[in-house]
């Protein structure tokens, strides 16, 4: 998404457009994709600028029936995701936090990821989540969500 390489951007755009088409046919409301940022290979500013242009082009012919959820993967912290979401400034683009990737690749705690992403969420600081295998999406404040996670951990 934020790569300078035109062949990568073209292939990514083609793949995302295909995923969008299939998701639309299936009646999906969200598509989760990896962010694609690899630390220490690009400066945040240039990568975010390129990602903004990519997403603006991608959304130019799309309606608002599907939200693209950008998932962290290799990021060391939440900064590049926050910068990208703020830069694109489109309600059809949101973050999907993968706590496994955050634990494996990040220098931030999962709690800090939740707090920083929640603070930057445009929907009144609400975090939406869905239990694995459930159809129901719930929204909680950052504080309520952290309490929920801690309670779930303590049940085990």
Mean pLDDT: 85
Taking Cα atoms only, what radius of gyration do you get, to the nearest Å?
16 Å
Assigned CATH class of the largest domain: Alpha Beta
In percent terms, what proportion of residues is strand? 5-15%
Superfamily (CATH H level) name of the largest domain: Divalent-metal-dependent TIM barrel enzymes
Number of strands: 5
Strand order of the largest sheet: 1-2-3
CATH topology of the largest domain: TIM Barrel
The separation of the N and C termini measures 39 Å
User: What's the tally of helices?
Assistant: 6
What is the topological layout?
Elements: H1 6-26, E1 30-34, H2 44-59, E2 67-71, H3 79-88, E3 93-96, H4 99-105, H5 110-119, E4 126-129, E5 138-141, H6 142-155
Parallel strand pairs: 1-2, 2-3
Antiparallel strand pairs: 4-5
What does this structure look like?
The chain is an alpha/beta fold. The protein has 2 domains: 6-109, Divalent-metal-dependent TIM barrel enzymes (TIM Barrel); 123-156, no CATH class. Helices cover 50% and strands 14% of the residues. The strands form 2 sheets. The chain has a 3-stranded parallel sheet with strand order 1-2-3, covered by helices on one side. Strands 4-5 form a two-stranded antiparallel sheet. Helix 2 crosses helix 3 (79-88). The chain starts with 5 loop residues before the first helix and ends with a helix.
